[in-house]
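Researcher: Structure for this, please.
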Amino acid sequence: MINSHVSRNELLQETERKRIILWDIETTGFEKNCKIVEISCLELHSQKMFHSLVNPGPEARIHSAVPHPWKLYHLEKAPAFNKMMKDLIEWLGKFPGNKVLLAHNGLSFDANRLINQCEAHQVELPANLLFDDSIKIGKSLSCDVLTFQAQARLPGLPSYSLESLLLKYGFTAPKHEASADVKDLQKVLSKLKGDEEPEKSLEEYLLAFCTSSKRTDELKPQKKNVYKCKKCGQPKKDHICLQTETN
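Model: Predicted structure, token format:
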């Protein structure tokens, strides 16, 4: 349930310390090491946008099942990943405080793919960059104004995908282009906010949900400890040491 105990003054102060940026990516596929081919960001406070296609490189292949329209020939003249990230980090730096990148299904897909590719290209993300997921807003509870009982915000939906939410509110299905999908996400979140708290801006409303946003290091894949044999230095798992004891 939304943090209704947070006062409007507190949220207004929070907007000075933390900015909500809606974002979306399109990729070459679905695997963890797939490459980004398009990225779009919308900073809610200023309504300024960042958008770029990304050249995934000559060896990249775009999976036939991806829903976006981009083909390799569309991306030939687009900037490479490192150049795009340099421009993106410069754009993010124009806004004060912490930046919360909020995407639909963002923690399980978008954030991981961005962080993985940054790791592969040795790109360091800003320390004041946080990640969160708008899907939890659709799944969350609201308070009935008559009974004051918690109830599902969107009961009976078969899924909380962006497409399901768009169709529920009478919009057309997503285009699977990052710039269009970011604007569609803004429409859906505005509908979710609705009349629930009309005195708040969309940014203030979303900040009340983004209280446990993840840092980059929290989303990086954790390296497992490998316990090695003290005699030969080989990993202990399924290992029979052939080294003899030395006196």
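Researcher: Any notable elements?
Model: The longest strand covers residues 18-27. The first helix runs from residue 8 to 17.
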